[in-house]
Amino acid sequence: MGKSIAPTGDAINRPVRYRGDASLHRLTSDSNHSEIRQVIMAKIVLAAGVPHPPRLVKEIEDSQEPLKPEAMFRQVRQHVEKAEPDVIIEVDSDHFVNFFYNNVPAFCLGLAEESEGPQEIWCPMPQYTVKGHVPMAQDLLSYGIGSNFDLAAAHELRLDHSIMIPLHFLNPGMEIPVVPLYVNGFAAPLPNAPRCFSLGQMIRGFVDQWGGNERIAIIASGAFAQDVGGPLRGWTDEEWVDTVSGLLEEGKYETLTGRATAER
Which of 26, 56, 112, 154 is the most exposed place for a label (fewest CB within 10 A)? Predict the structure, then answer.
C-alpha cells in the first residue's frame, strides 16, 4: 500500500462522545428502607479513525525527523489512555490474509480467544498475540443477525498489518481485548456506504443493550482515499479527504454516504 495517511486535526483525531451517561439510578425499596442503587452500563467512550501503512513502524524507526502519522498516533493514543477502554472493537478490511476472491464475506466478526499478527513476513514490526473478547463478540454476532445483518464469524484469525499497525501504537502492551470486525473493501461486490453506516448504527444499538459494564473504544483502520495495488497507488485524493472530514465534522452522514461510492 502506498503512503495513505488519514487526515490529521480535530476532524479525525478528536474522540466522538455520545449523548447520555452510562450510569442509571434505580430506586428500590423494602419494608425497612429505600436505597438508590447505581447501575453501570456499557458505553462507547472513544471513536477514532487511523491509517495502517504497512511499513510505518520501520519508517518511524529509520526517520531522522518526526513523521506526520507518528504525531497523529501519539495524539490518538492520548485519547485512548484518557478514555480507559476495557475493549476495542476494531473495524477493518482484511488484506487477503483470511479471505480471498473465492470467499469474501461482506461483514465478518472475529470470535477467536486470541490471534497473532502481523502475518505478512514483509511487514517490519514486532509480532504480537492479541486477546479477543469472545462473550461480547458472540453477543454482537447474535444481535447483528437479529438486526438483519448477515454477519459471518471466524473462530480462527490471522491478523494482518491493517489490524496490527493501529494496535501497535494504541494498545502496545496488548492488554486491551480486541473484537475485530472485517468489512469487505477489496473484492466486488462491496457493501455500499449506507449499509456500512447502518452497521455502525447497529453496533451502537448493541452497546446500548449490552449487559456488561465495559468501556468500549471503536477504532476504524484505513484511509478515506487510496488505490491499493491499482494505477493510483500511493496517491491520495486530498480534495476528497477534505470533503469527508468536513461532512463528518458537520454530521452530514446522509450526504456523505450518498457520495461515498466504490469508485471514490
Answer: 26
In sign, the C-alpha dihedral spanning 178, 184, 185, 186 is: positive
Note down the domain range covering 155.
Answer: 10-244
Q: How many helices (H) and strands (E) does the chain have?
A: 8, 10
The whole-angstrom separation of Cα 76 and Cα 48 is 7
CB under 8 Å to 174, separation ≥6 — which residues? 128, 129, 130, 131, 167
Domain total for the chain?
Answer: 1
Cβ neighbour number for residue 32 with a 10 Å cutoff: 5
Would you say the pTM of this structure is higher than 0.85? no
Consecutive 10-residue averages of pLDDT for the chain (264 residues) = 37 36 34 45 90 82 85 94 97 85 91 90 87 97 95 92 92 96 88 94 95 94 67 69 89 92 76
Q: Is residue 251 part of a domain?
A: no
Across the chain, the runs of DSSP E, i.e. the strands, are 23-29, 34-40, 43-50, 87-92, 107-110, 114-117, 128-131, 152-154, 178-183, 215-221
> What CATH number has the domain bearing residue 39?
3.40.830.10
The answer to the question of residue 259 being in a domain is no
